[in-house]
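Changelog excerpt

This revision adds worked examples to the README so contributors can see how folded entries look when concatenated. The first example is reproduced verbatim below.
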Amino acid sequence: MRHITPDTTRSPEVTDGPGTPRRRAFAFTRTRGVVMGVIALTAVLAAGGLAAANVLGTGNSATHPTALNSAAAGTRGSSPAAAAAGMPQLAGTPQMAVMPKQAPRVHRKPTAAPSGQPASAPSSGSATAPSSGSGSATCAKPQFVSSDPQGMWNQAPYFVYNDMWNTSGYNVSQTIYACSYSDWYVTATMDNSKGDGAVKTYPDSHRDFQNEPQINSFKSITSTFAETSPHTGIYEDAYDIWINGVASSSSTELMIWTDNYHQVPWGTNEGTVTFGGRTYTAWRKGSWIAFVANSNFSSGTMDLLAFFKWIMSKGWIPGNSTLGAVDYGVELVSTNGVPQTFTFSNFTVNAS
């Protein structure tokens, strides 16, 4: 998912401006105490008093470290009850957890490189396959490798994108390897130690539609995919489709979750609907819509036009809506802090 999220779920910090964190209050208290001690010491020395040593001792007394530690403890809020409250709570459905609501998402579209060229070079300077025991059986010699958060390979009209969009404040590493837009894999490491359930990355392959044609101008829009995921941590493999613009204020973001592991959607449950013999639960919040498969599946052919026509019939998007991009990848929350590999193959988007 190509987006940036203001992370309102974390402990607040005072900032001087975007990306410029200031010290927390307890750090200022310690600095002020030192300054006051120096002022007092100077005054005593000027008076010629012999109490300078005592004042110096007071300025370095245990009262300041104690106050500092208390403030730090308050900031962390590290009681067992508080920590437990922030962790996912298992719901009645297997492979499902109830997460705290995520902050609203603000999206953006990356700038593409010229056709056929990687938007960012591999960090290693070469397309070297990962070590034995990881990777993809079908992609043994990747043509594109990137650990850059914005690393993207232009195979127009397709793009392979590392998309580490929400990693600030989290310990995340991720490398994407691609043999083609339809055959790629990603190895990622992250956790949910903060208990906020935040999606951190969405490595994906996507097809962009030039000039964003009207959906009702198509007779058919289908897509194929196949994936293998480790069933570790928290994530969902999903389509991410942009309607009426790509990552703009007027866009509708439509997701189709095909393989869900311990992740939950947000918004309102709008009931169930069946497409291609599979049943999905529809969720909606504002301009965000998701169809969550009631039974996970890891490969298939999707009649995307059927999804589009259904949400038009519900009045969730206008009848003259346009198609901007169709993405397929994995939204990652956690790999339990250990490297995990997700592989993707047979991704295509066909429209006529």
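The second example, added in the same revision:
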Amino acid sequence: MSSNLIVQKYGGTSLGSLEKIKGVAKRVKKSRDAGKDVLVVVSAMAGETDKLLAMAHELSDLPERRETDLLLSSGERISSALLSIALHGMGCPAVALTGRQMGLVTDNTHTRARIKEINASRAIEILKTNHVVVCAGFQGVNDMGDVTTLGRGGSDTSAVALAAALGADRCDIHTDVDGVYTCDPRIVAKACKLERITYEEMLEMASQGARVLQTRSVEMAMKKGVRLQVLSSFEDVSGTLVVDEDEIVEEAVVSGIAYSRDEAKITLQGVLDQPGVAAKIFGPLADGAINVDMIVQNVSVDSGRTDLTFTVTMDDLQRAVAALESKREDIGYRQLLSDANVAKVSVIGVGMRSHAGIAQSMFKALAEKGINIQVISTSEIKVSVLVAEEYTELALRTLHTAYGLDAV
């Protein structure tokens, strides 16, 4: 395809009602009328995925992942069909395609599949006929022909992957916010919109809880060199460009504060302090496709034993506990404790590479507000702490002010 192609992705809040779907259709038609080839990737209507998942859990505590994928994929199919119908009603020819019809092939990991390849020949032929392609995001098909899904926020990944495969000029992520902010403006009133942010910073912000973009989509955009833009679905205002670091003229020491309430803490007390025990703990979790985030090992009150604390997502808590309890005798821990009332708060910025004292400033600011830090993890451009969930908003406002990010 030529660089005349633009990929547009619309999230669930952008498609939350028939009126909103009509609004999206007008935006898509405007781009096509301006001479652009347009491929649209859609999420399920707001609340639809949660509704379907709740139904599954009413029938089973641990619904089969294959059947869950088949169930959840219906939400995006509905959105793609409705948007295509709306476009036709406005005199804009469009064709709706499922992930399978789009040629999006994944591995066999149900509910968290990864994209292996895309055969977009059918979409290319449709675009050549001056039709808009409306693709159901979040889904694909494995080698056995089973429907798979890409995990929460997977429509972002679908959009970036398709933009890369088709050589699109840009991938526009339309959402309910008008860009990327220094912090969640719903919590921190003085948060500022960023005109540009680096791939690395956006990747850290996404992985640490900022819900503007999905982590894997940013990772793929950085790897494939896809230019991303975060825009509002409802206002015609400038958004935020996600770019290479060399496009940022002056790097801020801290660019943003991210948070995630989708965290749960697991502590194994009285684990034998000997080689191989960590593999026994994290092996079953890896086998269950459960991602572990923050990890800290403490000295136990028992001689020759240690306490190990780590975090998983809320969705994985029940599975993680079940997996560890099934291996209790092999691992040899004394007690398993879990806590879902925690939140992760992260300070992020590429400028942290060349500035000392960032972590110390964070710890001092939180201590002055009486906020206890439970777990700490760091990377080259990020410092994250785990705190009690009740202190989330106070921590965000405190750190936003401490690092001079408040709007004047």
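Reviewer comment on example two: The CA atoms of residues 9 and 41 lie 5 Å apart. The mean pLDDT is 91.
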